[in-house]
Design goal:
Number of strands: 9
Largest sheet: 8 strands, parallel, barrel
Number of helices: 15
Bound molecules: flavin mononucleotide
Strand content: 5-15%
Helix content: 40-55%
Structural class: alpha/beta
Distance between the termini: 53 Å
Radius of gyration: 20 Å
């Protein structure tokens, strides 16, 4: 049976998983206005799904039919919990997903020290156990991995070979090591090494490149230069909400449209998260809606001062009505 990775057009453009950013609300907005080929959830802790924190943890998996195709990204420690989570994801317990992705790239020091996420690069035996346990639970859902090129030193090919031998559906390579967090430029030559290795090993695993993709055109150029099958875009969406639709020049989107979109975001946020998430964390989205529009200091300052959803919506209504 064909799975999602095999059916998408190439190069595949993917919205990266981003904690506290790519939740159901933001994905709904992106899906409506300039959708990528594929979405990922925020990373979701398998141990959290198996304990009394289940309700809070599972809200990361919340989604609507518009955010498709959608892959659930999971992380954690114990292979048996990956197995159980994969079974639940495959059963439709949390709604439909088209695949399961394993986070082996988060560079958070505490997590890496405990041997989870990017820490698995230093514990390959555990990484393989986790992949196998996930595959065993996932049924027909394809399993993929998102990772970096090392923790404190570059071990790109050694690590990638181990992963490629697991016959994953896809492997996303973020061209940095964990110690670099996200501050150094991503090294696409390292990503190209993984493409060459995949070809040498004769594997079908799709290689997705990630790191510093600035625009849709930059993504196409990188696919051409480095031979990747797909492009995963994280922070690029902060600079252009219409990133995934090259026919839209965001500099032509008027302020009025952006205000209406921000209002739409805040209303969706209220419907989904009021009382659960911190209202002030929502303010980081302002920059997304106003990116590329020039200076609007008063508007930005006014919005930052708002203390509640209601105040913000009333302010937006007034500005929109004033034209
Ligand atoms: C705010 C934020 C949250 C992130 N959360 C996740 C996550 O939940 N899972 C994951 O695999 N990567 C996460 N990442 C990493 C991104 O998916 C991506 O690998 C990284 O930002 C590099 O791509 P970029 O240069 O296009 O942003 C996060 C990045 C940011 C900026």
């Amino acid at each position: 049976m064909e799975h999602i990775w095999q059916t998408l057009p190439k190069p595949i453009f993917i919205l990266a998983p981003m904690e506290d950013v790519t939740d159901t609300v933001f994905r709904q907005i992106v899906a409506k206005h300039a959708p990528p080929h594929l979405f990922f959830t925020e990373f979701t802790l398998v141990e959290g799904l198996m304990t009394k924190g289940r309700k809070a943890t599972s809200r990361r998996l919340l989604h609507t039919p518009t955010e498709q195709p959608l892959i659930a990204q999971i992380w954690g420690a114990q292979p048996e919990n990956f197995y159980a989570a994969a079974r639940e994801l495959a059963s439709g317990e949390f709604g439909p997903f088209v695949g399961i992705d394993l986070n082996m790239g988060c560079p958070e020091r505490k997590v890496v020290r405990r041997g989870s996420c990017a820490g698995l690069i230093n514990h390959p035996d555990r990484a393989l156990e986790i992949i196998q346990a996930t595959k065993a639970g996932a049924g027909d859902l394809p399993v993929s991995v998102k990772t970096r090129c090392g923790t404190n030193s570059w071990v790109t090919e050694e690590w990638a070979e181990l992963l490629l031998n697991q016959d994953l559906a896809a492997l996303t390579i973020h061209g940095r090591i964990a110690a670099e967090m996200s501050t150094f430029p991503a090294r696409w030559e390292e990503i190209a090494k993984v493409v060459a290795l995949r070809d040498r090993l004769g594997k079908d695993t799709l290689i997705i490149g990630n790191g510093d993709i600035e625009s849709h055109a930059d993504g196409l150029a990188k696919a051409q230069t480095y031979g990747v099958d797909g492009l995963m875009v994280g922070r690029g969406i902060f600079k252009n909400l219409w990133f995934f639709n090259p026919a839209i020049d965001q500099s032509t989107i008027p302020l009025h449209t952006r205000l209406v979109l921000l209002k739409e975001h805040i209303e969706l946020w209220r419907a989904n998260w009021a009382g659960q998430k911190d209202f002030h964390a929502l303010k980081k989205f302002h920059k997304v809606y106003f990116a590329g529009i020039g200076d609007i200091p008063q508007l930005r300052a006014d919005l930052m001062q708002k203390q509640t959803v209601e105040e913000t919506l009333a302010y937006l209504d007034a500005v929109i009505a004033a034209g």
